Amino acid sequence: MKLLPIILLCCLYSVSYAGKGLRPADDSLQYYRSFDGTRIHYTIKGKGEPVLLVHGFIVDGRSWEQTSLYQQLLEKGFQVITLDLRGNGASDHPHDSLAYMNDAEAKDIMGLVTYLKLPEYRVVGYSRGSIIVARLLVLDNRIRSAVMGGMGTAFTDPNWPRRQQFYEALAGKPVPELAEMVKYVQQSGLDQRALCLMQFAQPSTSPEELGKVTKPVLVLGGDRDPDNDTGGSLAAMMPAGMHGTVTGDHNSVVKTRKFADWVVNFLKDH
């Protein structure tokens, strides 16, 4: 297993958010209560057809605001919806393992779509966000099209070793190659317990399930991110899957103009 990509995946946007820690619960922020009472924070900007953005690990919905994609979607007339997945940002941080199991994060998103009374929507995920998007593709027929960025096929294995390593490291077990990640979490004031439980209960989507996804799905990988679908293997699992490659590594790709161009052009056509 390559150790550098593991750390890059975990520390996505770490430079941008170092030292900021948890967001205070500002009553002026927008929330809805999910199926189990968990408060989920969300933002909506712009008007037009809705695009929901799903963030990755150790970040929250604000991470999208630094990307070219966020601005391009608004400029092209889309409505942009972001949320903080449970355990992140200004959403509630349950410390019960059951709160993250049985597709809880996907259910939060589906509940938000219902709360906002959206008949259909497009969805974009990056890194761990793509894992959640895969669940949405299986569970929610309101999706019009989807983009999965920065993710290969390894998450289809419920016993994915990388997920297990993250869980063990965040649970306090010695995992030398992830020591810097744990240190970053602790120094940044992030919720280590919640992050640990996310890895413990992280969902997988089987190749058989993906093979039944008929909606158009664009899978985007960086040409220097070999662990995450550079070769198009994830896209090939889905009947209407398409694949693109953008110059860059796991950290840099999502913020680039080229990534945004790929996504916006795909969403305009689908």
UniProtKB/TrEMBL annotation:
Pfam annotation, one family: Abhydrolase_6
Presence of the UniProt keyword Isomerase in the record: no
Family annotation (InterPro entries): AB_hydrolase_1, AB_hydrolase_fold, Carboxylesterase_BioH
Name of the protein this chain belongs to: Pimeloyl-ACP methyl ester carboxylesterase
Keywords of the record: Signal
Source organism (scientific name): Chitinophaga terrae (ex Kim and Jung 2007)
Leader sequence residues: 1-18
Gene3D superfamilies per record: alpha/beta hydrolase
Annotated AB hydrolase-1 domain residues: 51-252
